[in-house]
Model the fold of this input.
Amino acid sequence: MTRRLTGIPASFRRSFQGGFTRGFHRAAAAGLLAAALAIPGTAALVAAPAMAQETPIRGGVLNSIVQPEPPTLMLGLNQQGPTQTVAGKIYQGLLTYDQKLNPLPSLAKSWTISPDGLTYTFKLFENVKWHDGKPFTANDVVFTTSKFLMEVHPRARAVFSRCESITALDDHTVEFKLKEPFPAFIQAFEVSSAPMVPAHIYEGSDYRTNPANNTPIGTGPFKLKEWVKGSYIQLVRNEDYYKEGLPYLDGITFRVIPDAASRSLALESGQVQQTQYSDLEPFEVPRMKALPNLTMTTAGYEFVAPLSWLEINHRVKPLDDKRFRKAIAYAIDRKFIRDKIWFGLGRVPTGPINSVVKFYDPKVTTYEPDLAKAKALLDEMGLKPDGKGVRATVKVMPMPYGETWTRLGEYLKQALGKVGIAVVLESTDAAGWAQRVANWDYEITTNFLYQYGDPALGVARTYISSNIRKGVLFTNTMGYSNPKVDELFAKASQEIDPAKRQEQYSEVQRILSDELPVVWLLEMEFPTFLDKRVKNANTTAIGVNDTYESVWLAK
Done:
């Protein structure tokens, strides 16, 4: 089993420098792996040497990993990373995007934008069916964007509330009329931002408790066949898919393998042919990159541009005081987090916008490690150390997304302890974490959010006060509120002149970097590993979350 950190040993830093792979027992990992891969009636695809193959081959099952297990596959209700990866094969948006963020057809075959930027008209493919055989029409688009997503989705309200009207001009034409220009609107239609849902199933129901949530019905190239909780999720080809000859694969099976060592062994041995996001612990990446049967890329995450941070509940004292949040920022070493916990995967952030996203500005207040400044801020607040050196105690709930996040929590406990902030670590599973954060039942947690190519779509939602929505994950769950920040985000979202947008986004970055509603940790890079037999995977900016309609397996 993988060696786990259960406390803060004296050798903590040496452990990170030396790596963790030497300590696990491969025999134990192999036993866990065998149990995880035991699926009745299926056989694992063992890796074979890659061969030159120009013509796609139809057939075969791609075995991948999903970690942690998603709480649901109803993508409209849940946008956690594992849900997106699996459900992106079941549901579809109107558009997808290439790796330069240019829009591409998905359910919409074409679109036009009026010269004044107020009217967007989408022409839909005409032979699309839901997985239950009912036709997909413009009415489904109107229902999804004007009703369903507006109620349950963390980002949709900020986008589609800008519409004066959403109209089905005919069965296969949808018109969106905006109240004012919104340049980011064309980027709001990928599968996690606007997954189309069937109006004939959801209209008039309680969206969150509809029985169809357990058996998702989409339009995608794959359908759910079986989900054995704790073991696997089995998708099979949609024989009625609207693109002739696609998909090539017979199916995709997502294996639930909680043990990190077993996940590595599954990829190394060829029992699975794909891993993504945090499936592999970062310390395993250098070794896996050297294996001849695998390829690795960090491409395919351009649209999401993930940024991680310490999410801080401003409703809890003393977390509501920006001096306390700044003390936390000065107490931690982000370069250490990048280099020794994430093993070089990522970049040190400066503020709320990822440096690969447009309108990023590095000219902001930054926080290099400085214990003296941290202690001075806590002194200024009147938080003096007691007899044990403790000034304040906070609860930190690391994301339940693998051992690296656990180690980050342990590092935070050590780092904050040096300035007198005692940390109590809390543990939970993926579903429990999502529920607690969404309902503001936390003090500090680690989190990462996607930026979706434009600050108006993926950044503003975290900081604007109108998006403080209890029960909805990935909103302004901190409870941060600043009218000037609200104003700047609103103006920038409507501004057509790129230079003026930059001025507005630069100002909002300066304000947020001073007030620190969250403490930014890392501009994340994820490794995607693919067996060399896997072709046409990870070709868009949506990467592993896209449909995989054109993926095939070489002999």
User: Anything to note?
Assistant: Residues 498-515 form the longest helix (18 residues). The first strand starts at residue 61 and ends at 65. The two ends are 33 Å apart (CA to CA).
